[in-house]
Amino acid sequence: MEALVGGTVVRRFGRRAAKSPRPVRARPATCWDATTSPVEIMAPDRESAGLLLGEAGARFRAELVETAGSTVVVRLQPAGAESAGWVFELLALVERWLDACRLPVAKVRHGDRSYVITAAGPEGDWDGAPGPLAA
Predict the structure, then answer these.
(1) Is residue 79 part of a domain?
(2) Secondary structure class of 67 (helix, strand, coil)
(3) pTM of the predicted model over 0.85
(4) Residue 68 domain-assigned?
């Protein structure tokens, strides 16, 4: 589904519709489960930040944080007591957001660490092998 926002076409993202109902698997516990610090995702503008904020609502407590520059920060924390494996939901959310907004990367902060999450390329998933060298 696409919408016109600020003169640009933005695709709304969400979970893909399943062809048949699948059982929900339990998420494995991760070292991130015990943390209480929020995850901050830098968005390039208010429109893309608003899209991320709207989609994060069910699984995460989310807030929009204005910064002095043009970057807008979306701050997320897992919602609910059963937060095991929430990092997998976060990564899936960021991947769908990058695809919907056609962004190449997302800058993410958690505690005192920073991460760069890249969007899947046009050729699909990267298999880990180096690409061909240009002549």
Answers:
(1) yes
(2) coil
(3) no
(4) yes
